């Protein structure tokens, strides 16, 4: 009993530690949409969810190919009070989300291979960017007003598109020690590819500065800061001129890693007393 409690405690401690490392996709099977709790699966998708349960399959070769098409809107809300609009709408597009499983089962032994995007798997397109891109821009009116140049508005063309996918390749060996207990060991190779594209362009502000003939019309922020530097000699305005110039990002990240997989399948059995109790209940009804 004591050993059992220690094992449960270790499992409960390990689960959050594992999921803290990477946000995994749980929809690793088309069957997920019919029955999302797949952790005790003894179907072909057990290659991913429960490798030790594969020994329950019939002897022979088994192959499964699944694909999902996913479209989703993601909304990001910010509480930063200086933003023109605190809501940013993004669209996630996943035209193909594939899963492939192959199993060979013979007697008490099962060998399996699985492939699928265990994280990411699609693209997110934010046509107006994200709040973090706009925070500094939204503070320009406050900054200029602190210099005595009344400024109340800003605008900018911002967009961002990111694509992320973590390809998972998994092999397992499963063995049934008895009818009620089986175990599995395996390894998963992960190859990650992340790409980012975005830009911040045409930042404009509406400062009022009668000495320069500025009466609150929208004008280019870099040009305005360069003009202020020329008029005042304050080199700080040169910094802001550079910071508000058009900028773009086009980046790609790749990485890889391995993770071990251990599994145990131990289905609970209904006792004869509970079974007879259920039959008595049925008879009484």
Q: Any chance you could write out the topology, listing elements then pairs?
A:
Blueprint: H1 2-19, H2 46-49, E1 60-77, E2 87-106, E3 109-126, H3 131-138, H4 140-146, E4 154-176, E5 182-205, E6 208-209, E7 214-215, E8 219-220, H5 221-232, H6 236-243, E9 247-265, H7 272-284
Antiparallel strand pairs: 1-2, 2-3, 3-4, 4-5, 5-8, 5-9, 6-7
Helix pairs in contact: 5-6
Question: What's the quick description here?
Answer:
This protein is of the alpha+beta class. It contains seven helices and nine strands, in the order ααβββααβββββααβα.
Give short descriptive properties of this protein.
about 280 residues; alpha+beta; 7-stranded antiparallel beta sheet; two-stranded antiparallel sheet; rod-shaped; disordered C terminus
Proportion of helical residues: 10-25%
Shape: rod-shaped
Structural class: alpha+beta
- Averaging pLDDT over every residue, what do you get? 85
Point out poorly predicted stretches: 1-21, 273-285
Major sheet summary line? 7 strands, antiparallel
Number of E-type strands: 9
Q: What sequence of helices (H) and strands (E) makes up the elements?
A: HHEEEHHEEEEEHHEH
Terminal CA distance:
37 Å
Specify the number of helices. Answer: 7
Verbal overview:
The chain is α+β, with helices and mostly antiparallel strands and 285 residues long. It has one domain. 25% of the residues lie in helices and 45% in strands. It has seven helices and nine strands; from the N terminus they run H-H-E-E-E-H-H-E-E-E-E-E-H-H-E-H. Strands 1, 2, 3, 4, 5, 8 and 9 form a seven-stranded antiparallel sheet that branches. It has a two-stranded antiparallel sheet with strand order 6-7. Strand 2 (87-106) and strand 3 (109-126) form a beta hairpin. The longest helix is centred in the first third of the chain and has 18 residues, at 2-19. It is rod-shaped. The two termini are 37 Å apart. Mean pLDDT is 85; it is low at 1-21 and 273-285.
């Amino acid at each position: 009993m004591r050993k059992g409690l220690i094992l449960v405690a270790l499992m409960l401690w390990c689960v959050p530690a594992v999921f803290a490392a990477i946000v995994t996709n749980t929809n690793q099977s088309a069957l997920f949409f019919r029955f999302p709790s797949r952790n005790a699966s003894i179907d072909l998708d057990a290659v991913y969810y429960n490798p030790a349960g594969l020994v329950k399959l019939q002897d022979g070769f088994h192959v499964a190919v699944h694909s999902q098409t996913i479209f989703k809107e993601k909304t990001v809300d910010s509480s930063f009070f200086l933003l023109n609009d605190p809501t940013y709408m993004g669209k996630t597009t996943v035209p193909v989300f594939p899963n492939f499983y192959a199993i060979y089962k013979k007697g008490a032994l099962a060998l399996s291979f699985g492939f699928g995007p265990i994280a990411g798997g699609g693209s997110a397109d934010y046509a107006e960017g994200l709040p973090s891109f706009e925070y500094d821009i939204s503070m320009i009116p406050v900054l200029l007003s602190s210099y005595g140049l009344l400024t109340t508005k800003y605008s900018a063309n911002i967009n961002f598109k990111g694509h992320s996918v973590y390809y998972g390749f998994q092999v397992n060996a499963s063995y049934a020690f008895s009818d009620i207990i089986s175990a599995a060991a395996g390894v998963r190779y992960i190859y990650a590819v992340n790409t980012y594209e975005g830009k911040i362009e045409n930042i404009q502000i509406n400062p009022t500065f009668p000495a320069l003939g500025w009466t609150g019309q929208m004008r280019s922020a870099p040009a305005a800061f360069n003009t202020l530097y020329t008029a005042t000699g304050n080199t700080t305005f040169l910094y802001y001129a550079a910071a508000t110039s058009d900028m773009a990002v086009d980046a790609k990240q790749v990485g890889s890693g391995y993770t071990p997989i251990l599994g145990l399948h131990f289905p609970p059995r209904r006792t004869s007393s509970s079974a007879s109790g259920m039959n008595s209940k049925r008879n009484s009804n």
